[in-house]
């Protein structure tokens, strides 16, 4: 079914164009973000400016990445447009380090994300974690619940581990579908992700954590002795005080980090280790 026009724009489904239309929620989000003049703020997907316009009141400039040229055509007519530094690009391919190098300041990234790419985008941003001050995103509720899930929870998965490895994550608002146009089929949540300053976690090689969690969660029903057998013997697991008969969802992030570091040392000190984990390095 074709959507009706909203502010003279036909929302495009493939770009996840569900525009926020509730001003009270907009205001709550601005209060949460709490923008300051000297900060470098970057919005992913400004759309018709629901967040862009009120945020601009606090700033001299705002960086925006928007994939849809029609949207930019719309924004050009707005009074706040001169404050925008616009990149008509795919946020998944954007060079965030360029922005950091230009300003020599950590970046604050925010947006009501297109839900179809939000997980991919967040994991892409983790690759740039060193140049990010914080991230404030509107997400599909299911994605947010996976981000914050703890061991034993049905939502605890590889994304929970990698996300919490990098960031402290808080769910701040729950938002009903009726607050968007067109109305999405899913519920939404507004989330803050702040990179750890003093991280409780450490791994020598993030690719190993990625590989181990990928194998562990590939089949949630499998016990670790089976799912991780290409990396660890039963004896290895016991030595790390991990019960080999547990499932992936019962292992804490600290324990996954220990596994990754144990594997790192094995690879470093053994010429016999012959598995290739590079293919799993994408989180
Ligand atoms: N910020 C607006 C709001 O809250 O009403 C629009 C949010 S809408 C959910 C998502 C926005 O992201 C759209 O403007 C869409 O065109 C844009 N978008 C979709 N995919 C994108 C991508 N890969 N890179 C940059 N922008 C994208």
Automatic annotation (TrEMBL):
Q: Which InterPro entries match?
A: KsgA/Erm, rRNA_Ade_diMease-like_C, rRNA_Ade_Mease_Trfase_CS, rRNA_Ade_methylase_Trfase_N, rRNA_adenine_dimethylase, SAM-dependent_MTases_sf
Q: Which family does it belong to?
A: Belongs to the class I-like SAM-binding methyltransferase superfamily. rRNA adenine N(6)-methyltransferase family. RsmA subfamily.
Role according to the record: Specifically dimethylates two adjacent adenosines (A1518 and A1519) in the loop of a conserved hairpin near the 3'-end of 16S rRNA in the 30S particle. May play a critical role in biogenesis of 30S subunits.
Give its E.C. classification number: 2.1.1.182
Q: Which residues cross the membrane?
A: none
Q: What range(s) does the Ribosomal RNA adenine methylase transferase N-terminal domain occupy?
A: 25-197
GO CC term, one of those recorded: cytosol
Tell me which UniProt keywords the record has, alphabetically. Answer: Cytoplasm, Methyltransferase, RNA-binding, rRNA processing, S-adenosyl-L-methionine, Transferase
Write down what this protein is called: Ribosomal RNA small subunit methyltransferase A
Q: Chief subcellular site?
A: cytoplasm
């Amino acid at each position: 079914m074709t959507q009706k026009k909203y502010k003279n724009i036909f929302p495009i489904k493939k770009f996840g164009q569900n525009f926020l239309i509730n001003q009270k929620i907009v205001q709550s989000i601005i209060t949460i973000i709490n923008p300051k003049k000297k900060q470098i703020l970057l919005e992913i997907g400004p759309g018709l400016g629901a967040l862009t316009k009120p945020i601009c009141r606090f700033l001299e400039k705002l960086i925006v990445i928007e994939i849809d040229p029609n949207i930019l055509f719309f924004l050009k007519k707005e009074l706040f447009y001169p404050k925008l530094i616009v990149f008509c690009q795919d946020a998944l391919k954007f060079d965030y380090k360029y922005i950091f190098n230009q300003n020599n300041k950590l970046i604050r990234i925010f947006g009501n994300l297109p839900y179809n790419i939000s997980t991919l985008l967040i994991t892409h941003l983790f690759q740039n974690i060193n140049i990010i001050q914080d991230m404030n995103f509107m997400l599909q509720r299911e994605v947010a619940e996976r981000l914050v899930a703890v061991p034993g929870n049905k939502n605890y998965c590889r994304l929970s581990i990698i996300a919490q490895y990098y960031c402290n994550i808080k769910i701040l608002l729950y938002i009903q579908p009726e607050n968007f146009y067109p109305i999405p089929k899913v519920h939404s949540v507004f989330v803050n992700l702040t990179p750890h300053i003093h991280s409780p976690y450490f791994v020598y090689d993030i690719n190993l954590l990625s590989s181990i969690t990928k194998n562990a969660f590939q089949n949630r029903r499998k016990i670790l002795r089976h799912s991780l057998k290409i990396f660890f013997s039963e004896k290895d697991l016991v030595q790390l005080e991990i019960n080999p008969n547990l499932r992936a969802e019962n292992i804490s992030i600290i324990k996954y980090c220990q596994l990754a570091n144990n594997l790192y040392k094995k690879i470093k000190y053994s010429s016999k280790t012959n598995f290739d984990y590079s293919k799993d390095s994408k989180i």
